[in-house]
């Protein structure tokens, strides 16, 4: 490795992923393509680290004086557990133990010390218990009851990173750019002032094809929405009609359509801020803080339905949505662009602890696309949560309903067709379920890890309502009569998919919220170095993303009512396969980064990603 900073065999300090702690590691190799170092920790965990997560050991020292001042006996006892001073005993421990021990040392109060110590001691014994089990392939993973001990760490660990950051004299690079963290006592600290990281240093590998990819997606995604909208009105919507006939420029714009979109978003915002419904806690952030979210989505869709019904009753012609679909989409696109510009600008001034790990490549276009601020809020109004769960999602049902009315009008029907009813009810069920279980969104990738930028703003506001409605839009002018057995078969498929989707999402959500939940005590888990465990039985033992499997089966049931005459109504199915396969691989890398060897162990046990025995 001639041109790289650290050489094979070098002993250096490597940051533990997702924390501010540095442990002594040995460099094993460097991959020029990914620019990642493979390092090995003393406990045997191998991880890939970026150069900026590696430091020279000479830059660290341990302040023993301040440690010995510790008032807590628990803390004093835990001194020798410092990962930087790993003893023979600790070197045989798993990284989980090491990480847990690190938390003990940083606990600030005696009571907390005691709780942590208790949790850690039980945890260590739990980990010890796993050792022999690991050799036994039939009983590889501890039972949930044993793992509950690890969960005690979870309980006390509501603010893990807050504690861990006490070890950090210098701010983490991924924490952004500006201020220096306060020097705290009791820490491994860097001796020399090192040049600060350039503000734009990327802290995660670039996604979506990197910088070039971002340009591409920025142009392609809106163009694709335009393409499918123009296609769906054609008598024969087929790829053979590429490019579709483009209407005169002035038809793209309608001020009234913009007005309606703004009114809809404001109405949804009003419902969101009403002090009705539960205040749910999000997952702990890196700072240890937990944000609160008003999860009144079900209430919002019920009130929206009442408002829409009242408007229809008053003679408002909802088929306007069908006849002005293009103009509504363009107006919403404009709003999503303005919102994304605002998000990009404010992310430049956001406090480091509010930033996501990605979206800081330094390339304006990439960062604008990916988004950098994790939970942009105006006071308590959470923009990402609101956009993901309200105007687009509820708008999707409103548009579907308008398409059913348009079908009746256009086809001269007294009631919508069976196909239209199926599509409407299936997708309504999906949205209502999402809003009923709104709290579960707080444990998804978008809410926990992704910054809020153009991709999500456009995805939530434009992509969802204007492309997820294509099946209903298609049926308006492309009737597809269904036999009763076909209807029954499609309903069965939908219910099957829904069952898998709901059960698996609820299982993971319940486990993440309360790992000690007695209802989950039958499940087996794998402990990880972060203190969190991974489910390895139940739905999450069937495949690594059972929720995606259920979602895909449902997507199939949404396209089938449209028949096989054209590819267009199958667009959602095709797009969804691509989206979920990509999300799965993003999540895999993220989990591998977070959980290291525990994740590899999970992957070895649960071999398939989404479809059992296939993929
Ligand atoms: N209709 C649509 O357009 C879309 C729908 N969806 C749906 O949204 C839902 C959420 O999807 P998404 O956010 O992508 O992913 P998940 O809800 O599957 O979240 C992934 C996270 O779950 C945790 N996890 C993974 N494996 C395990 C395990 N074995 N045990 C415990 N926790 C585990 C990890 O986070 P950690 O360990 O940090 O908690 C991981 O990062 C899915 O049902 C998906 O189908 C998603 C995208 C688009
Ligand atoms: C091509 C492009 C711009 C992609 C952006 C992706 C977004 C459209 C999706 C990312 C995750 C989503 C989720 C839902 C809708 C689509 C987006 C925003 C979701 C709200 C749909 C309803 C479900 O019940 C859900 C709550 C599980 C789901 C969460 C993820």
UniProtKB/TrEMBL annotation:
Composition bias, kind Basic residues: at what positions? Answer: 64-91
Biological processes per GO annotation: cholesterol biosynthetic process
**Where does it localize?**
Cytoplasm; Endoplasmic reticulum membrane; Nucleus inner membrane
Biased segments, Low complexity type: 92-109
Pathway listed for it is: Steroid biosynthesis; cholesterol biosynthesis
Q: Where is this region: Disordered?
A: 52-202
The reaction(s) catalysed by this protein are: 5alpha-cholest-8,14-dien-3beta-ol + NADPH + H(+) = 5alpha-cholest-8-en-3beta-ol + NADP(+); 4,4-dimethyl-5alpha-cholesta-8,24-dien-3beta-ol + NADP(+) = 4,4-dimethyl-5alpha-cholesta-8,14,24-trien-3beta-ol + NADPH + H(+); 4,4-dimethyl-8,14-cholestadien-3beta-ol + NADPH + H(+) = 4,4-dimethyl-5alpha-cholest-8-en-3beta-ol + NADP(+)
Entry's transmembrane regions: 214-232, 252-274, 295-313, 325-345, 452-476, 482-501, 522-543, 555-581
| Enzyme Commission designation | 1.3.1.70
Predominant subcellular localization, coarse grouping: cytoplasm
Under which main EC class is this enzyme filed?
Answer: oxidoreductase
Matches recorded under SUPFAM superfamilies: Tudor/PWWP/MBT (SSF63748)
Among PROSITE patterns, the record links this protein to:
STEROL_REDUCT_1, STEROL_REDUCT_2
Annotated GO MF terms: Delta14-sterol reductase activity; DNA binding
Sorted alphabetically, which PANTHER family does this protein's record hold?
DELTA(14)-STEROL REDUCTASE, DELTA(14)-STEROL REDUCTASE LBR
Q: Protein name, please? A: Delta(14)-sterol reductase LBR
Q: Which organism is it from?
A: Xyrichtys novacula
């Amino acid at each position: 490795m001639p041109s790289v900073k650290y050489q094979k065999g070098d002993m250096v300090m490597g940051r533990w992923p997702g924390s501010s702690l540095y442990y002594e590691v040995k460099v094993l190799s460097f991959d020029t393509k990914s620019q990642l170092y493979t390092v090995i920790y003393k406990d045997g965990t191998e991880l890939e680290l970026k150069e900026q997560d590696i430091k020279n050991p000479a830059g660290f020292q341990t302040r023993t004086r301040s440690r010995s001042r510790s008032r807590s006996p628990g803390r004093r006892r835990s001194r020798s557990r410092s990962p930087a001073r790993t003893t023979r005993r600790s070197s045989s421990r798993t990284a989980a133990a090491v990480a847990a021990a690190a938390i003990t040392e940083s606990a600030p109060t005696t009571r907390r010390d005691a709780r942590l110590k208790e949790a850690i001691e039980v945890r260590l014994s739990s980990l010890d218990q796993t050792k022999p089990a690991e050799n036994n392939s039939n009983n590889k993973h501890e039972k949930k009851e044993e793992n509950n001990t690890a969960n005690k760490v979870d309980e006390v660990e509501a603010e893990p990173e807050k504690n861990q950051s006490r070890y950090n004299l210098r701010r983490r690079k991924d924490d952004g750019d500006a201020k220096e963290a306060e020097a705290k006592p009791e820490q491994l600290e860097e001796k020399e002032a090192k040049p600060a990281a350039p503000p734009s240093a990327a802290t995660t590998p670039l996604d979506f094809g990197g910088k070039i990819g971002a340009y591409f997606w920025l142009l392609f995604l809106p163009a694709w929405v335009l393409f499918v909208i123009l296609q769906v009105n054609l008598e024969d919507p087929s790829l053979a009609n590429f490019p579709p006939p483009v209407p005169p420029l002035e038809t793209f714009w309608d001020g009234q359509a913009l007005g309606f979109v703004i009114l809809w978003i404001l109405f949804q915002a009003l419902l969101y801020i009403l002090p009705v419904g539960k205040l749910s806690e999000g997952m702990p952030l890196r700072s240890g803080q937990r944000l609160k979210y008003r999860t009144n989505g079900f209430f919002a869709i019920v009130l929206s339905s009442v408002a829409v019904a009242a408007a229809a009753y008053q003679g408002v012609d909802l088929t306007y949505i069908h006849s002005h679909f293009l103009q509504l989409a363009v107006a919403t696109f404009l709003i999503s662009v303005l919102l994304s510009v605002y998000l990009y600008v404010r992310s430049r001034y956001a406090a480091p602890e509010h930033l996501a790990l990605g979206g800081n490549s330094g390339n304006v276009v990439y960062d604008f696309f990916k988004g950098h601020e994790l939970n942009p809020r105006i006071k308590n109004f959470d923009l990402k949560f609101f956009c993901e769960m309200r105007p687009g999602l509820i708008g999707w049902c409103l548009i579907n309903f308008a398409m059913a009315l348009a079908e009746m009008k256009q086809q001269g029907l007294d009631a919508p067709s069976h196909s239209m009813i199926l599509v409407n009810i299936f997708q309504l069920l999906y949205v209502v379920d999402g809003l009923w279980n709104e709290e579960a969104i707080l444990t998804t990738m978008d809410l926990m890890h992704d910054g809020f930028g153009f991709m999500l703003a456009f995805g939530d506001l434009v992509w969802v309502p204007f492309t997820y409605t294509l099946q209903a839009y298609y049926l308006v002018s492309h009737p597809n009569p269904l036999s009763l057995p076909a209807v029954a078969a499609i309903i069965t498929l939908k219910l099957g998919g829904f069952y898998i989707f709901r059960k698996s999402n609820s299982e993971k959500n319940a486990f993440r919220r309360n790992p000690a939940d007695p209802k989950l005590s039958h499940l087996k888990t794998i402990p990880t170095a972060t203190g969190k465990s991974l489910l390895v039985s139940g739905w999450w033992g069937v495949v690594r993303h059972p929720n995606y499997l259920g979602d895909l089966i449902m997507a199939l049931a949404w396209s089938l009512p449209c028949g096989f005459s054209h590819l267009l109504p199958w667009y959602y199915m095709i797009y969804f396969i691509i989206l979920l396969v990509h999300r799965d691989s993003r999540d895999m890398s993220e989990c591998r980064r977070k959980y290291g060897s525990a994740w590899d162990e999970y992957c070895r046990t649960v071999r398939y990603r989404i479809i059992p025995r296939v993929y």
